[in-house]
Design goal:
The complex is a heterotrimer of chains A (about 325), B (about 260) and C (about 260).
Chain A: E1 7-16, E2 20-30, E3 35-39, H1 46-53, E4 61-66, E5 69-70, H2 75-81, E6 82-85, H3 97-107, H4 115-125, H5 141-152, E7 159-163, H6 171-188, E8 191-196, H7 199-205, E9 208-213, E10 216-221, H8 223-230, E11 234-239, H9 245-252, E12 256-259, E13 266-270, H10 277-286, E14 291-297, H11 301-309, H12 313-324
Parallel strand pairs in A: 3-8, 3-9, 6-7, 7-8
Antiparallel strand pairs in A: 1-2, 1-4, 4-5, 9-10, 11-13, 11-14, 12-13
Helix pairs in contact in A: 3-4, 8-11
Chain B: H1 3-23, H2 25-45, H3 61-90, H4 93-100, H5 105-132, H6 141-169, H7 175-187, H8 200-208, H9 210-223, H10 229-256
Helix pairs in contact in B: 1-2, 1-5, 2-3, 2-5, 3-5, 3-6, 3-7, 3-9, 5-6, 6-7, 6-9, 6-10, 9-10
Chain C: H1 3-19, H2 22-42, H3 57-61, H4 63-87, H5 89-94, H6 100-128, H7 136-165, H8 168-173, H9 175-183, H10 197-205, H11 207-221, H12 225-253
Classes of the chains: A alpha/beta (about 325), B mainly alpha (about 260), C mainly alpha (about 260).
Chain lengths: ~325, ~260, ~260
């Protein structure tokens, strides 16, 4: 069944009470062994999609196959093929890490004599051997996420769903988790479906990214391809004291449209890409304008999000939070 | 550091607590409803108790139990207020109060005022129910006023006790610590029958328990034959002063802990 | 894995959770005992009311802690289950091949075990303070099984509310309601000695009265077949209805496909 552990969704829709279309027609395909990043602001429909794909929520319409099984008609088969770490590490604060794994492996039907070794293996893989017999109440946020990941892996699933696995983690814990997820995909061939609201996470970790906003996928592709689609980098110059900023701006605008810059800087989006940088330098030089700092910015996924939705991802997240509050 | 400051702090704290309580049913209802449960269960369910040989209380069992439940609701109104104080400390609201209040003892006064107003609502409801249930009142106006005055001091005592605990422990987990001693003090007393019908260990404990004097004085007032009322007021006032010191020291402990 | 093994694992977790929250184990033990002490001493004169069925109020009132302890256990178990809904732990379980029946049965198994342990404790306290069961040793066995049944019945009620509301605050809001049922029953006096008409009517309609009277009959009467039949019948009826309701609520909550 190794060749059948991808995800295919067609026209997935989920509406909630009051006609809220949380997910509004999603088509996506995730190839076996791929890390797929589902990027979007809070409230975009990421978690609802994950709940449908993991069989916890029936879709209002549309179909999806996970590991070759229909998510509506073959729920039990889907569940045995997948592991999931859903948002807000759902752990029992009064149980220890090891007790969690014991319960999880038992309910998944691992043979009794294999369970202790499997628990040790999982605990050491996520770096919780020392803390294994402490109650989860005393764990840090990072430790809880790691235990959550270990639990999702207990029955060696072919497909892993991670719903915002690093939200609220410090940078070190985040990096450690990224490394573990990347290793799972590379060494064990696990397919990973990961939701995130962090651009960097999608950029670093995902083979392919789907950008979701208001329940719809607005762009999809490899991070590089998505950025190339927007294509054009920006150049930013900070004039040296004595150089007239207005003059600098007038010259830069010959190469592209003005765009946002740091307080003292002037930036434009280059019409014909990075090769124009040399022309920019020559033009400034021939006008006798000195600059303190000149930098080329490659496009980011935020630029992609901005181009597709008209908002920046950070701004969209704040807006969603205000809406919820 | 003027008296004006003290009262402005007290009124501000009291207003906030009362606003909270009267707009949040889960905070308001237990204090209102639990005394009614006790009253119906005791006065309604146990009325046959006045048939026990030697039970002599002319106004009847409803009035006998009304006094207990009135004092109990007063004490527990204070304890419920203590829960709120503990919550304020747990969620950091108390820190804001401590920073803002020029005279911090006004904070305690504020909680006490809130407790008294809150208990007044409970007492009014309880009284209406008791009258509807056909309670006989033997005492005149002065007696009745004295009974409610006594209960008012008991409410203050309960508040000061619970506030002192709350300011020392500063967590809502402290609930049972506030509740259990009050519960025991109230029930290690002649709750169901007069003191002379008690036997065994409870008779011994109840004879030493100051609450016994409060209960008996209260019952004598409602019966219209006041007995040892001065002593009861003296005991209640003494408890209020002692627990006032306890609460103020709790406030100092909270200040030292930087809460 | 078999259903029985799944039930075992869920029950084990339920017991471990209870034991690791000392407040939740101590309170169901201490509070009923405190009430037993003050009420049995405070009302001992009530045995002199003409027609009172026994001369020990302690023996008469000993039935009360069995019911109150079961109520506490219910609230704790319901709160635990509601928290599982809130934290998403239930979703985690739903993603395993665990059957819904195992969750309910396991949870109730844990409650039944805790209820039994509590009941043994209450009975021992009664015996230590001189109460003798009129129904003898076989009566003690029947009493413990009735107490366990009551714990299951109320436990299922708590589970139903937890699954339906998914909020531990709402489950705790149920407590006053159960408290009323307990207080407006024949816990303090036999029904025929309750003088106030409406109170006697309420106590007669109140199913909790019959649970108390069943337990009480084993202590002070001996083998009262009618009281036992009513107690077991009503206990079983509450248990069956509440379990069915809980299963329905779980079905709504775990809408996995």
């Amino acid at each position: 069944m190794r060749e059948e552990h991808g995800i295919e969704a067609e026209g997935l829709v989920r509406t909630f009470k009051g006609d809220i279309r949380a997910v509004d027609g999603i088509d996506l395909t995730v190839a076996p062994g791929e890390i797929y990043g589902f990027l979007g602001p809070n409230g975009a429909g990421k978690s609802t999609t994950v709940h449908m794909l993991t069989t916890l929520l029936p879709p209002t319409s549309g179909t999806a196959r996970v590991a070759g099984y229909d998510i509506v008609k073959e729920g039990p088969k889907v569940r045995s093929a997948i592991g999931a770490a859903l948002q807000e590490a759902a752990l029992d604060g009064l149980l220890t890490g090891r007790e969690h794994i014991r319960l999880q492996t038992a309910l998944h039907g691992l043979p009794r004599r294999e369970r202790p070794a499997r628990a040790d293996e999982l605990l050491s893989r996520v770096g919780l051997t020392q803390a294994a017999d402490r109650k989860v109440n005393g764990y840090s946020g990072g430790m809880k996420r790691r235990l959550d990941l270990a639990l999702a892996l207990a029955h060696r699933p072919a497909i892993l769903f991670l719903d915002e696995p690093t939200t609220g983690l410090d940078p070190q814990s985040r990096t450690a988790l990224w490394q573990e997820v990347a290793r799972l995909a590379k060494d064990d061939g696990v397919t990973v479906f990961l939701t995130t609201q962090y651009l960097e996470e999608a950029d670093v970790l995902a083979d392919r990214v789907g950008i979701i906003d208001h329940g719809r996928i607005v762009a999809e592709g490899t991070p590089a391809a998505l950025k190339a689609e927007i294509g054009r980098p920006t150049v930013e110059a900070i004039p040296r004291d004595g150089a007239d900023p207005a003059e600098v701006a007038r010259i830069l605008e010959r190469f592209g449209e003005p765009t946002g810059a740091s307080p003292k800087g002037i930036a434009v989006r280059l019409e014909r890409g990075a090769q124009q940088l040399a022309e920019v330098v020559r033009a400034l030089d021939s006008a006798g304008l000195e600059v303190e700092h000149l930098q080329l910015h490659a496009p980011s996924l935020d630029d992609v999000f901005l181009a597709k939705t008209g908002r920046s991802l950070e701004g969209a997240a704040e807006e969603a939070e205000e809406g919820q509050g | 550091m003027t008296g004006g400051h003290f009262w402005s702090v007290a009124w501000a704290v009291a207003w906030r607590v009362l606003h909270n309580v009267f707009t949040t049913p889960s905070l308001l209802l237990p204090g209102l409803v639990f005394p009614l449960f006790f009253f119906t269960a005791f006065a309604g369910g146990l009325s046959r108790v006045d048939n026990i040989p030697g039970f002599d209380f002319p106004p009847g069992y409803t009035a006998f139990q009304f006094v207990f439940v009135l004092l109990q609701s007063a004490a527990f109104g204070g304890v419920f207020t203590g829960f709120g104080v503990a919550r304020d400390f747990e969620y950091g609201f108390a820190r804001r109060l401590m920073l803002a209040a020029p005279r911090r003892s006004g904070i305690i006064a504020g909680y006490a005022i809130a407790a008294l107003v809150r208990w007044a609502a409970t007492a009014a409801l309880l009284t209406v129910v008791a009258v509807l249930a056909g309670m006989n009142v033997g005492g005149g106006g002065v007696d009745v006023v004295a009974l409610y005055g006594l209960a008012l001091i008991v409410s203050l005592v309960g508040t000061l006790w619970a506030t002192g605990v709350a300011m020392r422990l500063r967590t809502s987990q402290a609930g049972p610590v506030m509740q259990l001693p009050v519960f025991l003090a109230l029930f290690f007393a002649p709750v169901y029958v007069p003191l002379d019908l008690l036997t065994g260990w409870l008779e011994a404990v109840a004879s030493l328990n100051p609450v016994t004097h409060l209960l008996e004085a209260g019952r004598s007032l409602i019966a219209g034959s006041p007995a040892d009322v001065g002593l009861a007021f003296l005991i209640a006032a003494g408890l209020a002063v002692a627990l006032g010191v306890w609460a103020l020291r709790g406030l100092r402990a909270a200040e030292r802990a930087g809460a | 894995m078999s259903l029985a093994a799944q039930i075992g694992h869920i029950a084990q977790r339920s017991v471990v959770r209870t034991l690791r929250q000392p407040a939740n184990t101590v309170f169901p033990i201490v509070f009923p005992m405190a009430l037993l002490a003050v009420t049995s001493a405070g009302l001992s004169a009530a045995t002199e009311i003409p027609g009172f069925p026994t001369d020990s109020f302690l023996a008469f009132f000993l039935a009360f802690p069995f019911i109150q302890g079961a109520l506490f256990a219910t609230m704790n178990a319901g709160t635990d289950l509601a928290r599982d809904v809130q934290t998403g732990f239930l979703n985690r379980l739903a993603l395993t091949p665990m059957r819904g029946a195992a969750l309910i049965a396991g949870q109730l198994g844990g409650i039944a075990l805790m209820g039994l342990v509590q009941a043994i404790f209450y009975l021992s306290i009664g015996l230590a303070f001189g109460v003798r069961l009129e129904s003898g040793v076989p009566g003690a066995v029947v009493l413990l099984s009735l107490a366990t049944l009551i714990a299951i019945a109320f436990g299922a009620l708590g589970a139903f509310f937890a699954l339906r509301t998914g909020s531990s605050e709402s489950v705790q809001g149920l407590f006053p309601l159960l408290f009323v049922l307990l207080f407006l029953s024949s816990m303090n006096l036999p029904r025929e000695l309750i003088e106030t008409d409406w109170f006697r009517t309420v106590a007669t309609l109140n199913p909790v009265s019959y649970l108390i009277e069943g337990v009480r009959s084993l202590i002070i009467t001996g083998w009262d077949v009618q009281a036992l039949a009513l107690a077991f019948g009503i206990g079983s009826a509450i248990a069956v209805l509440a379990i069915a309701a809980a299963a329905w609520a779980l079905g709504l909550r775990m809408t996995r496909t």
